[in-house]
Amino acid sequence: MIFDYSHYFILTIFIPLCFCYNFRNTFIKLNDNENDRPQQIHISLGSNKNDIIITWTTYSSCNQTVVKYGIEPNQLNQNAIGNCNEFIDGGPKQRKHFIHRVRLSDLKPSMRYYYQCYSSDGFQTLSSTMYSFKTQNPANDWNARLLIFGDLGLENGQSIPRIKKEIDDNNVDLIIHVGDFAYDLDSNDSYVGDEFMRIIEPIAARVPYQTCPGNHEHKYNFSNYINRFTMYDMIDGNINNHYYTFNVGPIQFIAFSTEFYFFIQFGFAQTFRQYHWLEKTLINANKNRHERPWIITFGHRPMYCGNNNYDDCTRFESIIRKGWPYVGLGLEDLFYKYGVDMEIWAHEHSYERMWPVYNATVQNGTVDPNNPYDNAKAPVHLITGSAGCKERLDPFRLPLPWSAKRIVDYGYTKLTIINRTHLYIQQISDDLDGMIVDSFLMIKNHDLPVWLR
């Protein structure tokens, strides 16, 4: 009898592939007895400067939503009770998540607090790992240190270990994630999102993790993004994960959704509401310039970019800049009118710093000819979308006049508040073992930007 090796070959290839596939689709599932242990813990700023919001997930019940906390790790002598909501993913399995939220109120400023989250399976109370965070310094010249990035995925999330080390070394006060999470939060019946949230827990459970949505969050009308995060607007005191505002030292940050302009199948009204909210928020921010002279916005898709693709920002009249034909709602004129100092973006998987620019025309600074960001005459745009994801990096085309610096490698941005008049921005390369590959100093000697004086 002659042995047919072709069958053996097929089996040796097919069986390992099946094993790998099953492994990939099951390795992020928890054992049943872990379903109600608090996980995917992350914190965010509350509606006032003395609040912190703690959010986490369980899988089988809302039986208990409690945080124990205190200023000593062995004395968690304060309790806070929160609320829990059921979230059903839109995928084929219609998986249930139970999202727990607890507000810690009236915290002392510049104080380290330790905490544990508690949930129940109906028979026993299950606790999380103990974490700690430090509350904000309320001073308007607080020397806060922020990490800013977008487009961070579960697969090829290259910058995650270095970001965690920054947290371990106590080098970070707050993180801003400028859209596109996990790739994607809803993928594989949201198992990918669950694992991503577990991976970032050692980061996001220790410093406020502020977010805005990107295009990869759009599935099921952004439901995974909306339900998993908790972003409070400091003006109206409500949760709005699409657009909201918060303060850090001398900066008022304004988060918004660029995705309303593109996923119009979910309606038009939200774009009008956001535009009017942005104008109202910017008017209020300008009334408060003496206390917070800097206004910085962040949204996912940029107005300007130099990448070699066909995204909106590669077109001369981008939708974000100029709005829809015959309708408008473009943001460039609005942000210029109310003196936004810096506009931070992601989406492009690269780093790009622009000269101060308005209406596609460079408007460099007025004081130091060697530093165009010294009292700049227009907003400064910055793209930081190279934290790492499965779509890899985006190359550049020939530079356009407003492009000042372009880097194609993995990394993230660090913003350091030096004082009320000086902000220092650095780009950290993960490929080059933490090397600073770009830096610049923004200076503003007056509460208002040059073009509003």
UniProtKB/TrEMBL annotation:
Transmembrane segments: none annotated. It is an enzyme of class 3 (hydrolase). It comes from the Eukaryota. The keyword Ubl conjugation does not apply. This is Purple acid phosphatase. It catalyses: a phosphate monoester + H2O = an alcohol + phosphate. Its EC number is 3.1.3.2. GO terms for molecular function: acid phosphatase activity; metal ion binding. Keywords: Glycoprotein, Hydrolase, Signal.
